[in-house]
Amino acid sequence: MKSEDLQGLRGIAVISVVLFHLKVKYVDNGFLGVDIRLLPSFSLTILLIVISMPFFFILTELDTSADEIYEAMPFLINYRFAGQRESYWLKDQNFSSIVMHLWSLALEMQFYFVVPLIFLVVNLFDNSRHRLIVHSLFFAASLWSHNNESNESRQFYLLHNRLWQFIIGFVAQEIDSELSKTLKM
User: Fold this and answer.
1) What UniProt keywords apply to this chain's record, in alphabetical order (predicted)?
2) Range of the domain at 156
């Protein structure tokens, strides 16, 4: 059974993101549709985990799981996993973090906090080519960090080691913008 009000909220979220990407006037904050869609389900997930913990965990696991939930709530759980020095792909089958699945959401939310700072720096340059150079420098720094990180967990879980993947999109947008200007001439 689908909840119509939740479907309506999802619809508004998706439409706002699409309109934002189409650069529709007055939809400057359409990207917030991502948060509108993710935060209710994230909050519900955390609530259900907290409610179910006493029924599915032995007492010795409760403290660790509670600590993990505290780290997941402000979207910092990826730092805990990065410190474990164990590859995500090689996790022991007995590894039982109740919030393991939230590492990527934490990384995404950190991205949403960091990217405005990057754009603030990039937008100090008025020329598209200069912005492309600055994006490229951020890309190179992140890729260098990723390639020179010897700890696989840190390489996998931490934003500065993954930022290069996001910056590819920024660079593509700058190139597209520059090509559009060139083709209009």
Assistant:
1) Membrane, Transmembrane, Transmembrane helix
2) 57-184
